[in-house]
Amino acid sequence: MDPDSREVIQLRKVIPAFLLGALLIGGLAWAKGPLNLAIIWHQHQPLYWNRLTGEYELPWVRVHGVQEYIDSPSILTEFPGIHVTYNLQPSLLWQLLDYVEITEEERARGGLYQYIGAVDNHLKWIWKLIADPRSLTPEERAKMQQQFFWINGYMFDDDANDPYYDPRYASLNAIKDTRDLTDQELLDAGGLFLLWQISPELHEALGIADLRGKAGFTKDDIVRLIQAQHAVLSQVVDAYRSALAAGSELITSPFYHPILPLLAERGWDEDIKGQLSLAQKQHQSLFGTPAQGVWPPEQAVSGRAVALLAEAGFSWTVTDDGILAQALGHTPSRAELTTPYTFDGITVLFRDHGLSDKIGFSYGNKPTQVAVADFMEELRRYWEALPAPEEHLLVVALDGENWMFMAGYPNNGRNFLRALYRALSEANWVRTVTPAEFLAEHPATTGLADIPTGSWGGDLSTWAGEPEEDEAWARLAAAREAVFSAGAPEAALEALYAAEGSDWFWWYGTDQDSGTDDLFDWLFKMHLVAAYRAAGVPEDRIPQALFLRLVIPTVESLGEVSPTLDGVIGPDEWDQATHYTGEGALREVWIGYSENTLYVAARLDRPARDLVGEELVLALYASGKPGSPANIVTHHAGVQLGFTLASSVELNFAKLRQDGAGYVFRYDATPSGGWRLASPIRTLLFRKAKADEVVEFQLPFEELGIEPGKSVELSLVLERAGEFLGRLPARPLLAKVPQLVKGVQIFAMDDPAGDDHGPGGYVYPTNNVFSEPGIFDLVRYAVYDADNSWQLVFDFAALPNPWNGPQGFSHPLILLFLDVADGGLAELPEEAAAAQVAFDPEHPWDVFVRVAGWPAYGRHLWTAGGQGPYLVGVAADPKRNRVLVSIPKEIVPEIRGFHYVLIASQDGYGKDYVRAIGKTPGEWVGGGCPDPMWAPQIYDYLAPEGTSQEELLAAYDPATGKYAVLSPVEVR
To answer: From edge to edge, which strands make up the β-sheet containing 554-557?
Structure first.
């Protein structure tokens, strides 16, 4: 412990807290300078522009441009002593300027283009409603009725939290889900939507305040609002120029927001350099000077990626504190986190992830003064802990607009931002600076040997690794090869760079859901089509998959089955299968698996035996490995199913024996769009089929390239040549094959069901997402020896996934502590302090593993000696309510010893990712905890036989400041 910190602790023992605060600011402040704080706002939106139509598929650049992007720098001008840094993403600036510029050609087109320089789907719908309501399709009207209320609803609530309320807009919002809105009601909703998109602090100056609460909007009203939006958008870039002139810093990013490490690992250095060059050229053109700093998109870095930033001439960059933890091999101290580092000619800063997330996700649900006080207290802890805070730089970095409208802040975050800047202005022990300011005074001198690969999310799994993501990367690679083979024409390169943007890959897969994933897929494909065309590739050689309109799949985990293939649905044999029903020729479908085999059963509109001998095909279509040939229409009827078809597993009723027995055969898509027989003879006996009351067939996983723990898209179709008879499910099925338990069981122990109540009285939060009983109820724990790894199995009473956790579950946070070597710690590590327990001193922990549904923070292992975090394998089997964890033996050579298994509620924005349990339950807080300061913050715990979970968890003592001491179970 440093002397200054020890002095502070000693003072606390003898001086009341309020006097200590005054003494620290007054008496000791002479010995310490202010803490340097760099706030970096990252401004970014996806590229919504359709390259082939020249119009915008979604309106969000315009929507946020007239509120958050103008509010943020405008509020900053009220606090001239506050310096912040804005990352202005180049493709965002390009889109904003496109809305601003009305070209002569556009003016000549008339209509909307008389008033604004770009057109998006919402503006087109509103204009149709004005010009010819009958031209609106039923689908467009339905989207208008929902999307015209997609807004931070501070004008819907007549309460004291917000200064604005619109009774007309609120009344329309109240009825939108009860009946169809009339043309006038839709027009009123559209008008009020346009009005309240604009920062209400600008309404008076723009002359549109009279439209608040209006019923009976006219074309003239709509035109006024569009002109007002154009006027605000025209001010945005100037607002940031003013911020720069007042001492704040503006930085840039690679032009189309690509994930740099993923480009670098593919050897696409030229693309990174090209995107950085375009970004710097735009930045200098708009702001008169090159950007010194560069934001790596999604804070994703690697050694090669950061080196390329240096080669491009940037002096500093910023990433997440998790990257620093990997680089150092331990959780960084406050001093280490606030130290700028050098790597390969560039300074690298690391943000405080937790403090940044508090603004981004947590403070919006707290009273403004409470949130600001908490932030300032977090800063105070840094100031107190650092002997010379004036030599350190604390970085807080996050999305610059998302927090304002997504995190629940009153008044769209304006109140919080003003209160935060005011508090920072009044605190003489903290100084807001830009990185360029600080580094000019304190050049970085501490070097890093390496920059680990990762992002704010830990690894890069959000943008690569799922089947859809890998397929997109393969398509991108193929297009890139075509572009560079053609000499990389400028227009082709620009389209290719746009397709490299992170947003397409963010929305691919099941880990994120925009509600419009099909649209993002289409935009990605249109950039690739444009790249091929600009490279001179003949139209018939452009991959046909790029012209497929994606249908968002249904996601299911397959269940394990062991049916007898006799054409009859026997008792219980298909109970665990994924099951769908429909109408028409195909009535029911069951899909399940065993260790190496996929099983399918289908009930038709008549007994399957009656169809034997007919020219009729039951085909199971499946996606394939990334980059493999794929068709976009079915083999026989030529119908799109909404995903690429790499394989067709077919049962031809004409080729069955009279008793209904036969085999299925797999056909592969060919590069030319055809199909070829691909099933090998050696698998014939494992491709049996039988048609009787129903059809049942099996297929080895190897035929489709399916692996446990992976996913594949499937659709079962009944068709014949030129005729489509039916499909199930109605949307493609993204089928997940659970990871199977492997190895030899060396330990297993049941935990009592229904004991997910902590010391006895804990209850779940009140939000409906916690309504299913047993989501924190561990019922069994087992350990397996699986060759080079240990497999740990955690079975729960229930394991739903309402938030689409990428690792297959949402609710439980598993905290596992192992005493498997000499030495160790009896207290919780910093990464789990929020659990509020202690351990038997006779059995201190050596290894800590944290498991959650999100890989960013839920597959990490630390040692008591300070090593880590290491990454472990995490998977789920939802049908069994099971979480599987794989720990390599090279990290943990011996698993036998003593284990502590704790189950908390996962909260991605809570301290240490532990959801708090208070005295009374709230929507997002558990209840029944008699002393939230000292009682355990866990719901379940694997207590040894002969002990009581309730008694052990209740043995905390606030009087002596001691947490409950837990006992482990012995694993032999």
So the answer is: 554-557, 723-736, 711-720, 617-622, 647-652, 665-669, 675-677
Q: Is the peptide bond before 869 cis (omega within 30 degrees of 0)?
A: yes
* Other CB atoms within 10 A of residue 785 CB: 16
* Residue from 255, 292, 259 nearest 275 by CA: 255
Residue identified by tokens 């916690």 is 770
Contacts of 694 (CB under 8 A, 6+ apart): 567, 568, 569, 588, 601, 602, 603, 604, 608
* Contact present, 837 and 938 (Cβ < 8 Å): yes
Partnered with residue 876 across adjacent β-strands are: 883
pTM for the predicted model, two decimal places: 0.82
- The predicted-structure confidence for 816-847, as pLDDT tens digits, reads as follows 999 999 999 999 998 999 999 999 999 999 99
User: Amino acid identity of 191?
Assistant: G
pLDDT tens-digit readout, 211-248: 999 999 999 999 999 999 999 999 999 999 999 999 99
Are residues 591 and 729 in contact, defined by beta-carbon separation less than 8 angstroms?
Answer: no
Least Cα distance to 571 among 561, 583, 581, 579 occurs for 561
Q: State how far the alpha carbon of 829 is from the alpha carbons of 449, 857, 886, 939, in Å.
A: 26, 15, 21, 19
DSSP line for 259-291? -HHHHHHTT-HHHHHHHHHHHHHHHHHHHSS--
- 437-442: Cβ within 8 A, 24+ apart: 437/83, 437/247, 437/249, 438/36, 438/38, 438/340, 438/393, 439/315, 439/316, 439/340, 439/347, 442/340, 442/391, 442/393
Q: Is the dihedral of CA 505, 509, 515, 521 positive or negative?
A: positive
Pairing of strands 293-294, 873-877: unpaired
CA dist 664 and 689 (Å) reads: 6
Q: Any idea what DSSP says for residue 343?
A: E
Strand spans (E) along 158-301: 249-251, 293-294
Q: What is the pLDDT of residues 916-972, one digit of tens each?
A: 999 999 888 999 999 999 999 999 999 999 999 999 999 999 999 999 999 999 999
Residue type, 235: Q
Dist. CA 457–CA 871, nearest whole Å: 13
